[in-house]
C-alpha cells in the first residue's frame, strides 16, 4: 500500500505527514488493519525497539472539581460515584507510588483534580516529590495539576519533577463542545510553560467524544507543533453520571487506526496507550503494543484498569519488554532538543465524520457497555491495597 510505505519512510525520517495522509489512515478498511499496525510498528521499533515504558498514576486529590469538562467523572456536578478525597499526605502518596515502582513503573504521575494549583498546592506537591524521591531516587516524576501560573513550572522542576502533563484532549475548533470553563488556548499555554521551564512536556487526547476524523488529526498536529515528548492517547471512559454517559462510539479497530495515525504524526515521541484501553480495545490490546511504546500500569484516576499482573503478562506474551530503570525512553536527538530548549528559555521561565456510519451514511450507535466501567475503590485514598 503506497500510503503506508510513504508513512513509514516519513516516520523514520521524522518527517511530518500531510493532513490527507493522516486522515487516510483513519479511513483504512478492516481488511488493511494489520498492514496499518505493521507499518506503524516499523516506526515504533525504529525509535523505541521492543521496550514498553510503564507509568503509574497516583490521584493526589479526587473529585469535586469546579471545572465542567464533560468527559470527566470529577467535574462540577458529576454524579459518578467515584472516590472523593482531598490532598493525600506526602507519605500516603509515596506509599501509593511505591506500589507502582515495585510493579515496574519508571514514571509516577502525580495528578490532582482542579482548574490549577495554588502556590501552596505546588509546595505540597514539592513535599510529595521529595518523599517519593527519598525512597526511589531515580523514578521519573510527572506532575499533572491543571493550568499553571507564572513560576509554578519552574518550582516543580526545582522540586524534582521531570515532566508536566496537561492534555489538549480535542481540537481547538470543538473544544467549547467539551468544556466551557476554560479554553483550548489555556491548555496550550500551560504545555508551553512547562516546556519553557525545562520540564519534559506530556500532552495528549481523548478519542470517542463525538469528534470527527478532522478533529482528531487537528489535535494530533497541534501536539506535534508543540513538540511534546509524550502523547497519552485516551479512549473515552463514558462514566454514568457524566454528560458523556452512554457514548460508546469506538471499536477496537478504530482505536488501532487512531493510535497508528498518532504514531505516524509523532513518530519519535513516547506514545502512551492510556485510559479506556481495556474497555475499547478489549482483546486487541496486545496489537496496540506494536504501535505505542508506553502504557499505564494498573488502575486509572477514578476507574479500575486490568490487574497490573495482567499488564505485565500481556507485554511478555506479545514479545515486548518492560523498559528498565536507567534506560533513556526518548531517542538521543529528542533529549538534545529538550536541553537546547532549556538553554534558550528565559529565566522565569471540522470535515468528514468518523467512520462509524452504515452504508446510507447514518451514524451507527454502538451498544452501551456500562458494565465494563468499574469505579476505582482501591489504592490511593482508600485502605485497600493498590493494583500494580
Ligand atoms: S479534567 Fe481536570 S479540570 Fe476538567 S473537570 Fe476533570 S479534574 Fe477538573
TrEMBL record:
The cofactors required by this protein are:
[2Fe-2S] cluster; [4Fe-4S] cluster
> Where are the compositionally biased (Basic and acidic residues) regions?
347-363
Q: Where is the Radical SAM core domain?
A: 47-277
Pfam families (UniProt xref)? BATS, Radical_SAM
Key word 4Fe-4S present: yes
Cite the EC number: 2.8.1.6
Chloroplast as a keyword of this entry, yes or no, is: no
Note accompanying the cofactor annotation: Binds 1 [2Fe-2S] cluster. The cluster is coordinated with 3 cysteines and 1 arginine. Binds 1 [4Fe-4S] cluster. The cluster is coordinated with 3 cysteines and an exchangeable S-adenosyl-L-methionine.
Question: If you read the UniProt record, what top EC class would you report for this enzyme, in one word?
Answer: transferase
Q: In its UniProt entry, what is this protein called? A: Biotin synthase
Amino acid at each position: 500500500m503506497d500510503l503506508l510505505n510513504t508513512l513509514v519512510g516519513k516516520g523514520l525520517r521524522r518527517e511530518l505527514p500531510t493532513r490527507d495522509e493522516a486522515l487516510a489512515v483513519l479511513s483504512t478498511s478492516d481488511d488493511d488493519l494489520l498492514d496499518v499496525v505493521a507499518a506503524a510498528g516499523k516506526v515504533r521499533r525504529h525509535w523505541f525497539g521492543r521496550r514498553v515504558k510503564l507509568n503509574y498514576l497516583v490521584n493526589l486529590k479526587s473529585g469535586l472539581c469546579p471545572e465542567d469538562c464533560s468527559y470527566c467523572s470529577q467535574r462540577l456536578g458529576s454524579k459518578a460515584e467515584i472516590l472523593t478525597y482531598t490532598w493525600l499526605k506526602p507519605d500516603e502518596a509515596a506509599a501509593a507510588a511505591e506500589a507502582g515502582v515495585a510493579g515496574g513503573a519508571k514514571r509516577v504521575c502525580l495528578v490532582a483534580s482542579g482548574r490549577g494549583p495554588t502556590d501552596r498546592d505546588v509546595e505540597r506537591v514539592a513535599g510529595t516529590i521529595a518523599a517519593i524521591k527519598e525512597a526511589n531516587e531515580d523514578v521519573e516524576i510527572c506532575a499533572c495539576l491543571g493550568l499553571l501560573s507564572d513560576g509554578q513550572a519552574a518550582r516543580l522542576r526545582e522540586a524534582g519533577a521531570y515532566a508536566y502533563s496537561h492534555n489538549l484532549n480535542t481540537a481547538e475548533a470543538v473544544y467549547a463542545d467539551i468544556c466551557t470553563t476554560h479554553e483550548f488556548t489555556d491548555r496550550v499555554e500551560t504545555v508551553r510553560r512547562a516546556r519553557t521551564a525545562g520540564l519534559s512536556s506530556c500532552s495528549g487526547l481523548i478519542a470517542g467524544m463525538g469528534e470527527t476524523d478532522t478533529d482528531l488529526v487537528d489535535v494530533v498536529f497541534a501536539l506535534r507543533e508543540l513538540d511534546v515528548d509524550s502523547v497519552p492517547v485516551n479512549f473515552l471512559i463514558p462514566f454514568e453520571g457524566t454528560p458523556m454517559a452512554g457514548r460508546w462510539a469506538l471499536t477496537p479497530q478504530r482505536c488501532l487506526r487512531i493510535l497508528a495515525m498518532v504514531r505516524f504524526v509523532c513518530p519519535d515521541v513516547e506514545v502512551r496507550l492510556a485510559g479506556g484501553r481495556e474497555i475499547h480495545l478489549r482483546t486487541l490490546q496486545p496489537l496496540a503494543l506494536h504501535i505505542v511504546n508506553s502504557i499505564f500500569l494498573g488502575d486509572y484516576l477514578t476507574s479500575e484498569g486490568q490487574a497490573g499482573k495482567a499488564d505485565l503478562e500481556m507485554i511478555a506474551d506479545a514479545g515486548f519488554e518492560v523498559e528498565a530503570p536507567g534506560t533513556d525512553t526518548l531517542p538521543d536527538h529528542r533529549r538534545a532538543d529538550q536541553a537546547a530548549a532549556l538553554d534558550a528559555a528565559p529565566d522565569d521561565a471540522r470535515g468528514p465524520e468518523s467512520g462509524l456510519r452504515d452504508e446510507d451514511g447514518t451514524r451507527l450507535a454502538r451498544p452501551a457497555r456500562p458494565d465494563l466501567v468499574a469505579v476505582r475503590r482501591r489504592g490511593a485514598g482508600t485502605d485497600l491495597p493498590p493494583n500494580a
